C-alpha cells in the first residue's frame, strides 16, 4: 500500500511529502520506491502516491498503456500547475495552427498553409491521429520526396517544406515536442546539388578521362 513520509534529515532537505510505493525493479523483483511528490499538501501527496503505485502495478502486470500514463501525468500536472496539460495529435495541433493563422495572414497565404497542412496529414495517413511528437524527420523527408515524384519544381517543394517548418517550430517553442522534426531536412535543391556533386567527383568518374 502506498504511503507518504517526510524527510528525516535535520533540518529537512525538502519541504515536500515523499511518496513510498511498491513497484517492480529492473531485476523483476518487487521493491519499495521513494519519490518526491513536489507538494506540501498531505491529501494531494497521498493521492499522487496511490496513482504511482497503481501505475507500477499495471506495469508489473504488463497492462500499462501509453494513454493511462498520459492521463495520470496530465492530472498531476493540472493539480500542480493549475493548468490543463494537453497531449495533441498531429492532426489536432496542425489543424489548430492553421486556424490560428486565419486572421494573421492574407487569404491567399492562408489558403496555401491550409493546403500544405491538409496534404501533409493525408500523406502520413494513420500517423496523423497519433501524438505530434511521433512525427519524425523521416516523415518530413518522405513527404518532400513524394512532392518531387509528382513532378513539382524544387522551389515549390522547398516552399512546402518551409511552410511545414512554421507549425513544428511553434510546437517546439511551445513545449509540445522536444525535437523539431523539420530542422534536419535537406531542401530539394540542396539534395540535387549534393547528388550532382557526388556524381561529378565519384571514383568512377575520375578515371573516365
Textual characterization of the structure:
It is a single chain. The protein has helices at residues 42-60, 66-81, 90-100, 107-124, 137-149, 154-173, 188-200, 203-206; strands at residues 3-5, 18-24, 30-36. It is mainly alpha-helical. The chain folds into 2 domains: 3-81, no CATH class; 90-200, Tyrosine recombinase, N-terminal domain (DNA polymerase, domain 1, Orthogonal Bundle). Helix 1 runs antiparallel to helix 2, helix 3 runs antiparallel to helix 4 (107-124) and helix 5 (137-149) runs antiparallel to helix 6. A 3-stranded antiparallel sheet has the order 1-2-3, with helices on one face. The termini are far apart. Helix content is 55%, strand content 8%.
| CATH uppermost class of the largest domain | Mainly Alpha
Return the average pLDDT rounded to an integer.
Answer: 83
Overall number of domains: 2
Q: Give the SSE string.
A: EEEHHHHHHHH
- Assigned CATH superfamily of the largest domain: Tyrosine recombinase, N-terminal domain
* Multimerization status: single chain
Question: Considering DSSP H and I runs of 4 or more, what fraction of the residues is helical?
Answer: 40-55%
**Roughly what fraction of the amino acids lie in strands?**
5-15%
Low-confidence stretches: 185-209
The count of DSSP E runs of length 2 or more, i.e. the number of strands, is 3
Total helix count? 8
Structural class: mainly alpha
User: What would CATH call the architecture of the largest domain?
Assistant: Orthogonal Bundle
**CA-CA gap between termini:** 80 Å
Amino acid at each position: 500500500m502506498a504511503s507518504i513520509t517526510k524527510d528525516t534529515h535535520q533540518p529537512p532537505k525538502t519541504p515536500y511529502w515523499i511518496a513510498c510505493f511498491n513497484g517492480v525493479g529492473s531485476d523483476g523483483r518487487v521493491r519499495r520506491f521513494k519519490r518526491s511528490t513536489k507538494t506540501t499538501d498531505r491529501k494531494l501527496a497521498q493521492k499522487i502516491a496511490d496513482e504511482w503505485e497503481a501505475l507500477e502495478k499495471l506495469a508489473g502486470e504488463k497492462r500499462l498503456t501509453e494513454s493511462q500514463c498520459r492521463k495520470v501525468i496530465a492530472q498531476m500536472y493540472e493539480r500542480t500547475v493549475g493548468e490543463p496539460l494537453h497531449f495533441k495529435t498531429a492532426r489536432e495541433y496542425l489543424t489548430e495552427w492553421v486556424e490560428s493563422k486565419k486572421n494573421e495572414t492574407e487569404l491567399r497565404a492562408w489558403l496555401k498553409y491550409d493546403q500544405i497542412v491538409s496534404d501533409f496529414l493525408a500523406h502520413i495517413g494513420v500517423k496523423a491521429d497519433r501524438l505530434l511528437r511521433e512525427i519524425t524527420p523521416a516523415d518530413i523527408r518522405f513527404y518532400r520526396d513524394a512532392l518531387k515524384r509528382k513532378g513539382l519544381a524544387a522551389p515549390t517543394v522547398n516552399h512546402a517544406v518551409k511552410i511545414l517548418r512554421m507549425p513544428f517550430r511553434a510546437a517546439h517553442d511551445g513545449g509540445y515536442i522536444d525535437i523539431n522534426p523539420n530542422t534536419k531536412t535537406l531542401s530539394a535543391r540542396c539534395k540535387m546539388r549534393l547528388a550532382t556533386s557526388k556524381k561529378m567527383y565519384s571514383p568512377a568518374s575520375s578515371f573516365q578521362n
